[in-house]
Specification:
46% helix; alpha/beta; 214 residues; 11% strand; single chain
Length: 214
């Protein structure tokens, strides 16, 4: 067994507190409210958004998660992806912050943990499920009183082609990092998504304060 060099951290429920059910509920209320205010049919938008998320979760690696999301959204919305894309970009820079502020909070010691990881010469990686664009991930990092610079690599839908709990998410990530499974440990709060790393032989430490155990 090689020496551990890298710590993979989940974000939501791990480095920040999150009420996931309330986050999902409020997220859809918020984003559909914005799109509805701009004149889009909210039932069509909900169908397109939900379908695009499901397709992204099931992505097969042939294209990026970003491409899969918008390809599916375009199909389900009747070709509106290009028009809506700019509005959703704006949403993540503006209204999304109120959603995370209402459903997430910081862990006072998260920054300390990252500092100690780096002080030990280990490499901190943010292995959050890449369903969101990088801008949305950065917003959640800031809410947790951390910086994107605290991590050497961050997964987002732009740079990933799989999602948890598909073990190929971890295969792709480790290939990009140039490390083997026995050089890292995964820390998360989801017994399905995060524990899928164990399929590669990655040790998994499950936090229980915001435990998701489906």
């Amino acid at each position: 067994m090689k020496k551990i060099t890298t710590v993979l951290f989940d974000l939501d429920g791990t480095l920040i507190r999150m009420d996931q059910d309330e986050f999902i509920r409020l997220y859809f209320v918020s984003i559909l409210g914005k799109l509805g205010s701009l004149g889009y049919d909210t039932s069509v938008m909900r169908t397109a958004l939900e379908g695009a998320v499901v397709a992204t979760l099931r992505n097969d690696g042939s294209i990026s998660n970003e491409e899969r999301f918008w390809e599916t959204f375009d199909s389900l919305s009747g070709g509106l992806a290009q028009r809506v894309g700019g509005e959703i970009d704006s949403y993540y820079n503006e209204e999304f912050n109120s959603v995370i502020e209402a459903t997430c909070s910081s862990y006072p010691r998260a920054g300390e943990v990252l500092d100690r990881v780096k002080a030990k010469g280990l490499h901190p990686i943010l292995a959050t499920n890449p369903l969101f664009p990088m801008v949305a991930t950065h917003a959640r990092i800031r809410l947790g009183k951390m910086s994107a610079d605290d991590f050497e690599y961050i997964t987002a839908y732009e740079n990933s082609s799989y999602c948890k709990p598909n073990p190929l998410y971890f295969t792709e990530l480790l290939t990009k990092l140039g490390i083997s499974p026995d050089e890292c440990v995964m820390i998360g709060n989801d017994t399905r998504d995060d524990f899928s790393a164990h399929a590669l032989g990655i040790p998994v430490f499950v936090l229980t304060e915001c435990l998701i155990n489906t």
